[in-house]
Fold each of these.
Amino acid sequence: MTVPASASAAPAPADPAATHDSPAALKQKLRRAERMRKLRAMGLIAPLFFFLLITFVVPIADMLRRSVHDTELSTVWPTVTAAMKGWSDRSTVPDEATFAALAKDLRAAGETKTLAVAARRLNYAVDNGRSLVFGTARRLPVNATNWKETLIGIEPRWGQVETWNAVNQASGPLTSFYLLAALDREKLADGSIIKAPEQNSIYIDILERTFTVSLSVTLLCLVLGFPVAYLLATLPPKHANMMMILVLLPFWTSLLVRTAAWVVLLQEHGIVNEILLALGVIEQPIRMIYNRVGVYIAMTHILLPFMILPLYSVMKGIKPHFMRAATSLGATPTEAFIRIYLPMTLPGIGAGALLTFILALGYYITPALVGGAADQMISFFIAFYTSDTVNWGMASALGAVLLAATLVLYSLYNRLVGISNMRLG
Amino acid sequence: MNRAFKKLESVRKDLIFWKAGAQPPQLLASGEVVMTSVYNGRIDAANNKDGKNFGIVWDGSLFTLDSWVILKGSPNVDAAYKALEFMGKADVQAGLPSHIAYGVTNKDSKKYINPKRLKDLPTADENIANAIEINTQFWLENNDRLTERFNKWAASNG
C-alpha cells in the first residue's frame, strides 16, 4: 500500500502493523496526520499573525472607531449631553432643563478643571467656541431662577440653534461630524447635510490632489522604469548585476536623505539650474522646487525601484525565443513587442503600478520638503491634526476617507487588471 | 484676517513656505529667498558657526514663552519647585545665551550677560521694544479653521 503524496511530510507510522489497517482506520490516521501538519503550519505563522493583528488590524480598527466615536464632551459634560437627547424641536433652542444642565456641567467642569476639554471639542464646530465656554463659565452665577435667560444674557450665542446643534452633535457616543467635515460637509440642526463654507472646504480638493499626484507619479515610474527593467532583464549577468546595484543603492538610502538631495539639486542656484544656465539652455533659473514639478521629480525617483523590481522579475521569466518566434513568423519588431512581449509583462506592470500608487498615496515628508503650500497631500493634514492640534477625530476621519477611497480604487483596479494576474516576483 | 490674506495675495508669487526650522537659513544661504521668517537661534548659529552674515530685523518680531509644568500628583513636587527656583535665578539664566541666542525671562539676568552677546538676544531692550507676543489664546481658538482657510488660499490659482 502506498501513502498519498500529500501526507508524505507526516511522520511515518511507528507501528509496522499499521500497514495491515483497514481502509477506514487508515483514513482516520491520515486525517490526524493532516491535522497535525496544519497545526504546525499555523504555529509557524502565528507570530506573524499576531504581529499583524497588533500593528495593523488593531490600529486601523481604532482609527475607524475614533472617526465616528465621540465621547470627549460627554465625559466632561455628562448632564447636558444626556439632556440633549430630549431636544425634539430643532428649530428653537432646548428647554429650561437643558440650560440648567449646562449650568450644572459648566460649574462642575470648572471645579475639576476640565472646561478646556469641552472648550476644545466645541471649538471644532463653533467659531470662538473656547471663549464661549470660558466666558460663560467665568460669569456663571451661583443661583438663577431662569437659567435659559441667565445664560443667554451672559452669552447671546446660547440663544442660537447653531450652538446647540454643535453641542448635540458632540454629545456622542456616535457622531458623523468628523466624517462629514472630512468630505467638506456639515449637518444642520434639522438633519439636512450641506456643503461647508467655501473658505473651509478643502478636503475633497486635497483628496483629488493626492490621487492626481499618485497617479502621475505611477505613470512616470512606469514610463521610466519599463526600459530600465527591460535592460536589466536582457543584459548579460555581469553588466546586469552592476546595473541592479545602481537601482538598489538609492533604494537602500534613507528617504529623507534622497529628498534633501533633490533640494540641493533643484534649487534656484542648484546644480541643475547652474548647468542649464552655463550651457545657455535657459537664461533665467527655472523654478523646479517648492512646486508640483519638484514633488513629481522627487517622488518618482524615490518610488522608481518599486516599479522596476516587479517588472524585472516578470521580464526575467520571459524567454527570448518568444520574440524570435514572432519575428520569424513575420512580425515587425514593434508588432512583436506590442502583441507578444507587452502582454506577457502585464502582471509585472499591474503589480508595480499598484505598489507605487498605494505607496505614493501616503507620502508626507517628500511633498512637505520639496512641494509648495499647494502641493501638500492628505497625509500632511492627517499629521497636522494628529500632532499640531491634537484633533484625533478629524485625523481619523481623513484617514478613514483615504482608506475608503483607496479600497474603492483597488477594487476597480482588481476588476480591470485582476489581482490573480499580478506577480510581485 | 481678511487684510492678512489680501497682503498674502499681493506677494503670492514670491513666497516659499518652509516646514522645518533648518530650512530658512538654508534657503537664505542658497539664494532661494532674500528674506525669511525664522527662529532667531538658527540665524545666530548660521552666523557664528557657519560663517554667514545674515542680519535680523527685530522690529515687529514675534516671540513666545515656554512653560514648565509640574504634573499633578507627582511624587517629586518639592524637588520640582526647587528646580524651578534654581532655573529662575538670574545668574543661572544668564548661562543660556552662550549656548543658544534665546531670551531670558528673569530681567535681572541681563546684568550677568556679556553686552556683546546681549544684543543678539530677543530680550535685549532695543530688540524687544516693538516685539509682539504670539497670542496662544487666539491660536487655540482659530488654528484649525485658519489652517483650512490658508490651505484653501494656497491651493487656489497658486
Amino acid sequence: METLVESTERPDGCTIIVADPTGEGGTLSGSAVAVSFRPAELEVRPDGSGNLLGSRCQSCGAHFFPIREACSGCLSRDLDDVRFSTNGTLYTYSVVRQSTPAFEVPYVLGYVDLPEGVRIMGQITGCPIEDISIGMAVEMVLEPFGTDDDGNPLTGFRFRPAEAS
Amino acid sequence: MMTGVHVVGVGMTRFGKHPDSDATDLGSAALLEAIDDAGIDARLIESAYVGHVFQGMVTGQRILAQVGLAGLPLANVENACSSGATAIREASLAIRAGENDVVVAIGTEHLTSKFSGALTPDPSDPEAAVGATMPGVYAMRARRYMEEFGMTREQLALIPVKNKANAARNPLAHFRKEITVQDVLDSRPIADPLHLHDCSPVTDGAAAVILMSDKAAKRFANGRGVRLAASTLRSGSVDVTPTSMTFEPLTWDTAKDAYERAGIGPDEVDFAEVHDCFSIAEVLRVEGLGLFEQGTYPWAVERGEANIGGRLPINPSGGLIGKGHPLGGTGVAQVVEVVRQLRGESGDRQIEGARVGVAHCRGGKAVGIEGAACTVQILVR
C-alpha cells in the first residue's frame, strides 16, 4: 500500500492525493507523479488539480465523453473541449473480483452520471463496500493509477463519496 | 422481385475445449457437415463469409483451402460476439442482391488458445483503462435491474439453471450437467452480484450454414429449407444523454427492423436463441426483443414460461451459458439450433410445433456507446 502524504482540496471540488514517491514520507515531489494516465481524457494540471475532458456541441449543447469530432445529436462539427464537473451521482456499481493482470482485485467499478449529462465509468474508492449505494453523491479524486512503460507513476481518477456540503 | 433466402444446410462442431485442433479445423468440420446436410455438390457454393474475432488474418481462406474450395470470393468478418451472425447477414445480402444463389456463412473460434479469464474491451478503450471487464459491466446492469425492478439474486440464478438444464439435453453443448440455484450462488464470485455460473464459458467451436436463393432452394432444398425472413444488423449509437442500462434500445431497434422486414411481430415468435453471455443479459435481450415486457422476465422464468415446453422457450440449445460461447461461432450456432428446431430435429429438447424462431446476438463494448454490434435473424418454417 502506498503511503499517502498529501491530500489537497481544490476550489473546483477536485482533489489530488499524491503518493510519496520514496515511500518514506519525505519531501513531496508532486511533479513526479502528476502525469495523467490518459492525457486525452484526464487533464492533470501542474498545480495538481484535474478534470475529465470532453466535448460540448456549440449548436445543440450536448456533451460527450470522450472528446468527439462531431455531435451525435445534430452532426455539428463545432464542438468545444470542456472540463467536466467533478461531482456526480452513482448510477450503478459492481465489485470486480476477476480482471486482467493490470488490475489488482477486488476493486469497485461504477458508472457515475455527471451534471453535464454524461455517464463515466470509474472505480469507486474511499469507503467500505457496504457503504456504497446506487444514487449516492460522489466526487472525483485523482490518485496514483499504474505506471508508464519506464515504471514512472501515473495519475488517474476514481470517485469517492462526496463530502456533505 | 427480390429473392427470399433459405437455410438449406447446417453444421456444427461440439462446443467445448478442443486442445488438439484449431479454428481452421473446427471451421472445416462444420462446413463439411453443412455441405453434407444440404446434400449438395460443394462446387455449387459461390461465395463465403467467415466470422471470427481472435483467430488472426485470413482464417476463412484457411478453412476453404482445407476443404478444396479455395478461390471463392470470401470476406472475413469481425464484429465482436456478433461476428458469425454478421457473416450470415452478409451472405444473405449477397443472395438478396442477386449476386449469388448459394453462399456459405461460417463462424469459428478457438478461444481456449487465445484467451482466459474475464473478457475486456479493447485495451485502447478509456473504459478498459479504468478496469472495465465484460462481467463487470453486466454485473453493474444486473445491480441496476435489481434496484429498479426488485429482481432477487435467486431469481437471476434461475436463468443459468434453465440454460444448463437445456444444455444437458444438447449433445453438442459445452456443459452437460444440470445445476441448482444453490450451485449458482456457491460458485466463485466474478463481479458482484454475478458468480461463475452466471457467465458464459471460454469455448472452442464452429458452425456453418448454407444459404440459398428461392431459385436454388427450389432445386436443392428437398423440402428441408428454412426461410431466413430477416437478418438485420445495427451498431450502438452514442447517447446524447445517458439512457437506462436496464433496457436495450440497440436490441429493440435491430429487432424492430427485423420484425418489419419479416412481416412478423414479437407475438408470433415461438422461441428464441438470445445472447445470454451473462444471466442478466438474457433478461435484457428478451425484454429488448419485445418478447417479454420490461421488468417482467425474471418472474416469467420463475413460472417456467421460458422452459422448453413453456409459453415461449428461450435458449433451448442451452444458450451461451450452457452450450458455450466461441465468440465468432456463436451467432452461426444459434441459427443452426433454430433451423434444427424448426425442422423437428432437436431430439429430447424439441419444441413441439415451432414455426417461427428468432436468433439474437449482441457484442462488443466501446466507450460512450450502448453496445457495438447487434444482429437479429428471424427464421420461419
